[in-house]
Specification:
Elements: E1 8-13, H1 17-25, H2 31-42, E2 47-52, E3 71-74, H3 87-102, E4 106-109, H4 111-119, E5 123-126, E6 132-141, H5 143-146, E7 157-164, E8 166-170, E9 176-181, E10 189-194, E11 197-202, H6 210-219, H7 221-226, H8 233-248, H9 253-259, H10 263-266, H11 268-271, H12 273-288
Parallel strand pairs: 1-2, 1-3, 3-4, 4-11
Antiparallel strand pairs: 5-8, 6-7, 6-9, 9-10, 10-11
Length: 289
């Protein structure tokens, strides 16, 4: 039996229960479901569990511990990671450090790269350039990124789904490698080594697709309008509807041109290459080791 069939992955959903409810009511896919969709595609026989870590009474499933899993995947979150007085935040940082100490591979998007940086001694702050939303443009690999296994098979420049206000403002001094950047957010990806573990963190969202991002835009139409990206909330819905239409008809050259979207966003194999590489080049070798 291929070793990939034996994988046990814990997906860590960083959203509190109240905010997960809001996403449900808005028709937005839950963050852990987006990750599970990837794993069901790439590792269809893997055991997948979810830890709702922002719920203070939540724990790993009965009979498991940190070393029960071959990897941990962190979703995004609407919490703010530098709010050190919020136990919903501090318990996540403490858990991330515990996973580092256990030597179990980690990955994660958005909140994930911020989590990796904070847990290893870096800093996160509000981005002075404001929100980066919908699609991050012209993400470029650093020289280190071009030679890193996280990006094997990935173009050196690409676009990716994104939605965030905060950024990694200081990379950890020890054990961190800057892998990707763009004009809006200096840190778009990091490798962070801490304790016995490694975390491949990404600011953008490979787990998203056009439909999921469109529905998130609709759910966030009020702040997007207040922040000046749109003159009225109905403009958000107009854009989102075009994105949903392209999701349903990905070969439409007219919609691709109108939305400035290419294969790096539309094609799953390209969009989710980073997660495939995490499984193939970090998780599986660590299991063999």
């Amino acid at each position: 039996m291929p070793i990939k069939d034996n994988l046990k992955i814990c997906v860590i959903n960083g959203y509190p229960a109240a905010n997960r409810k809001v996403l449900d009511e808005s028709g937005v896919a839950q963050a852990d479901d987006l990750y599970k969709d990837f794993f069901k595609w790439h590792t269809p026989n893997a055991q997948l569990d979810t830890l709702y870590i922002a719920d203070l009474d939540a724990a790993l499933p009965s009979g498991t511990n940190i070393n029960s899993y071959d990897g941990y995947a962190w979703t995004g979150s609407n919490l703010t990671i530098y709010h050190h007085d919020d136990p919903r935040v501090t318990r996540q940082i403490e858990f991330c450090r515990a996973v580092f100490d256990a030597g179990v591979p980690q990955t994660g998007s958005c909140w994930g790269v911020q989590m990796a940086a904070m847990a290893a001694g870096g800093t996160v702050e509000k981005n002075p350039k404001g929100r980066e939303w919908s699609i991050a443009r012209d993400i470029q690999l650093t020289d280190a990124g071009k030679n890193h296994p996280l990006y094997r098979g990935k173009p050196e420049k690409f676009d990716g789904f994104i939605m965030h206000l905060d950024i990694v403002s200081r990379i950890p001094n020890d054990g961190a490698v800057h892998l990707a950047t763009n004009a809006h957010s200096y840190v778009q990806a990091l490798e962070v080594k801490c304790g016995k573990g490694t975390f491949w963190g990404i600011q953008y969202h490979p787990e998203f697709n056009l439909d999921a991002m469109a529905r998130l835009l609709i759910a966030r139409k009020e702040p997007l309008t207040k922040e000046g990206f749109f003159k009225a909330e109905n403009e958000v819905e107009t854009l989102a509807n075009k994105m949903i239409e392209l999701y349903k008809n990905p070969q439409s050259q007219e919609l691709r041109k109108a939305l400035n979207v290419g294969d790096d966003v539309l094609t799953r194999e390209i969009r989710q290459q980073e997660f495939r590489n995490w499984v193939d080049y970090l998780v599986l070798p660590s299991m063999s080791g």
